[in-house]
Specification:
heterodimer, A: alpha+beta, 9 strands, 43% helix, B: 4 helices, 11 strands, 23% helix
């Protein structure tokens, strides 16, 4: 008998249409770049240090690969999640790795692992997320806004999987706008994801840059 | 004390096969280990048939395939379609449905506040839909470790049918085979 492991992850090509054309990708990436610089500016003001945004990556990933493309699924992270509601549905997710969470708590002079730390991380997410979502909303002329953030700590796979489960109901791919904000002269980075729900991707993309 | 498995897979250091969101994996390779790392609201459905050395895992994301509105979906994504797909593929590998044993792990609600109810509902609905589909096929649920607020990881060793789970900070726990009798049904739903 042959011994084997069969694995079936489905296929992006099973989808009736490609989620984004090259032109749409470029359009979304351009909008994301401008807004991420504004978000970095907001972040700088909160922490009192200069933070810069790396050029955002726009990724369209098969669902089964989405988590691992962003890091080790067992990695410890603290995440702040802002569901976005209105004419489109989306999520904003800020991810803080262990060292960065400590660095931010030090900069803000709050004790880590406490309510205050969670509250501070949530507030950072709220300010950055709101700036970002408002920027996208203004660019596409649609009305949507973030709800208050919720903060959780745990494995990257568990946190991200929970958000992706609610964003990829109909399709087998995840659309992620992935931005890294880095604080000058430190190892402190914040990963910032904008994840439109699959039911909203088309409406969002087709109206981007129309304003 | 670690419950590290003394299987052929562990001895041979065979890399674990990751089962990503919506994926489904089945194996009759006695050295293989199937793994799901970092389960939040998703549920890992494991079915083992130790006598025949066949095991499979579906990484279930959502409860009902009707949510896809007719679009194609990965075989493990929806509970109602993942269960028959997993059983059928195990049968293709020689497993007897009458000897199959199921283990459910995951379905946590990690986020609190306003999003807790919707996330918790997904985890619970995943568990309920899987349980119902297994019941239709007459497959016993031997162990269940679901709910709560912490993510989990799962390993399945095909050679001896061992199923192990852990949270990020907790010890590895044996859910199947022997642990099933020692552990209560741990459906920790958060208050």
């Amino acid at each position: 008998m042959n011994y084997e492991v069969d694995i079936d992850v489905g296929a992006v090509t099973d989808q009736p249409e490609s989620p984004l054309t090259d032109e749409q990708r470029e359009g979304l990436a351009e909008v994301a770049k401008t807004i991420s610089e504004e978000a970095a500016d907001s972040f700088s003001k909160i922490i009192g240090r200069t933070a810069k945004a790396k050029v955002p990556l726009l990724e369209v990933l098969p669902l089964s690969e989405a988590v691992e493309s962003l890091g080790g699924p067992a990695d410890q992270v603290t995440a702040a999640w802002l569901p976005v509601v209105g004419q489109i549905e989306a999520s904003v997710l800020l991810l803080f790795d262990d060292a960065s969470e400590q660095a931010i708590c030090d900069l803000l002079e709050v004790e880590r692992y406490g309510e205050l730390a969670n509250s501070a991380l949530g507030e950072i997410a709220n300010i950055i997320g709101t700036r970002y979502v408002n920027g996208i909303s203004a660019s596409c002329g649609m009305t949507f806004e973030p709800e208050p953030p919720e903060v959780a700590s745990g494995m990257l796979g568990a946190v991200l999987g929970t958000v992706l489960a609610m964003s990829t109901v109909m399709t087998n791919y995840a659309v992620l706008v992935d931005t890294v904000l880095k604080v000058d002269k430190t190892d402190c980075t914040v990963r910032f994801l904008f994840i439109p729900s699959d039911s909203s991707v088309e409406a969002l993309i087709s109206s981007l840059g129309t304003q | 004390m670690s419950l590290a498995p003394k299987t052929e897979a562990a001895k041979a250091h065979v890399p674990a096969v990751p089962v990503g969101m919506g994926a489904l994996a089945v194996s009759n390779d006695p050295t293989a280990r199937l793994s799901v790392i970092g389960l939040g609201s998703c549920v890992a459905l494991t079915i083992v048939s130790p006598k025949q050395r066949v095991a499979g895992v579906a990484h279930v994301v959502l409860p009902d395939s009707r949510l896809a509105a007719g679009r194609a979906a990965p075989p493990g994504k929806f509970a109602d379609t993942a269960v028959p797909a997993l059983v059928e593929r195990m049968a293709d590998k020689g497993a007897d449905v009458r000897l199959m044993q199921a283990v459910l792990v995951g379905g946590a609600a990690m986020f609190g506040g306003r999003v807790r109810s919707s996330v918790m509902a997904i985890g619970e609905q995943n568990v309920d839909a899987i349980t119902m589909a297994l019941d239709l096929l007459g497959i016993n649920v031997a162990a269940i470790d679901v709910g709560g607020v912490e993510g989990r990881s799962l390993h399945v060793d095909v050679g001896d049918g061992r199923v192990l789970a852990r949270t990020i900070a907790g010890p590895e726990r044996l859910l199947f085979p022997n642990g099933a009798r020692e552990l209560p049904a741990t459906r920790h739903l958060a208050a």
